[in-house]
Amino acid sequence: DAKTTQPNSMESNEEEPVHLPCNHSTISGTDYIHWYRQLPSQGPEYVIHGLTSNVNNRMASLAIAEDRKSSTLILHRATLRDAAVYYCILRGNTGTASKLTFGTGTRLQVTL
Amino acid sequence: DTEVTQTPKHLVMGMTNKKSLKCEQHMGHRAMYWYKQKAKKPPELMFVYSYEKLSINESVPSRFSPECPNSSLLNLHLHALQPEDSALYLCASSSQRGGDGELFFGEGSRLTVL
């Protein structure tokens, strides 16, 4: 399984932008970069995913490095409800490579 | 409807009991997943079903027996569990098995084995 590396924890002030980094130096050409988050006492929630180009949706933006060896999840204005564990996951296209395997993630704390 | 519904939300069982966890989705998704999550740990994949056929079993002990009776329903049958099997069991579905598909997760069934 291709691995990702994320900081264990990060802090942000409310209404400030948050940049959550992820390194994935062994990414293969067909791996998609997925981000999920898990709020306390809830199941994981899909945030965003991409392959090569930067992606935007209503929740966040995903910036992918040109060599695809790293990516950054951007929350444009953090709120208290964004406090969660954020997981960066590589997902291949076929067979066992398409498994969604969670790493340890980044615990984001948001303060007033 | 973008929900994955899991029942029961909480289950307490003895080591000799037989029980089942149920997962339902009506999004037309053909891939369904079981994950296990211990406290303060990331979810761990257990099983993947694709078009109602088991495609991935992550070497899960046979006391956990998955079943996919139709495209909307996924069960996890539990028998002779151990206290260390106490965990949150998460079900998920996706429209496709490939990397371009996102997973939709249920809220989980919290299992306690006495």
Overview of this protein structure:
The complex is a heterodimer of chains A (112) and B (114). Chain A is mainly beta and 112 residues long. Helices cover 0% and strands 45% of the residues of chain A. Chain A contains no helices and 9 strands. Chain A has strands at residues 9-13, 18-23, 32-38, 45-50, 55-56, 61-64, 70-75, 84-91, 106-111. Helix content of chain B is 0%, strand content 56%. Chain B has strands at 4-7, 10-13, 18-25, 31-37, 44-50, 53-57, 64-70, 73-79, 87-94, 104-105, 109-113. In chain B, strand 7 and strand 8 form a beta hairpin. Chain B is globular and about 40 Å long. The mean pLDDT of chain B is 94. The chains are: A mainly beta (112), B mainly beta (114). At the A-B interface, strand 3, strand 4 and strand 8 of A face strand 5 and strand 10 of B.
The secondary-structure element order of chain A is EEEEEEEEE
- Estimated structural class of chain B: mainly beta
The total count of strands of chain A amounts to 9
Low-confidence stretches of chain B: none
Globally, the shape of chain B reads: globular
Cα shape of chain A: globular
| Fraction in helix of chain B | under 10%
Succession of helices and strands of chain B: EEEEEEEEEEE
Find the structural class of chain A using helix and strand composition.
mainly beta
Numbering strands along the chain, what is their spatial order in the largest sheet of chain A? Answer: 1-9-8-3-4
Please tell me the overall pLDDT of chain B.
94
Fraction of helical residues of chain A: under 10%
Q: What is the averaged pLDDT score of chain A?
A: 93
Radius of gyration of chain A: 13 Å
Helical stretch count of chain A? Answer: 0
Rg of chain B computed from alpha carbons, rounded to a whole number of angstroms: 13 Å
| Separation, N- and C-terminal Cα atoms of chain A | 38 Å
Total strand segments of chain B: 11
Main sheet overview of chain B: 7 strands, mixed
| Low confidence ranges of chain A | none
Q: Could you state the oligomeric state of the chains shown?
A: heterodimer
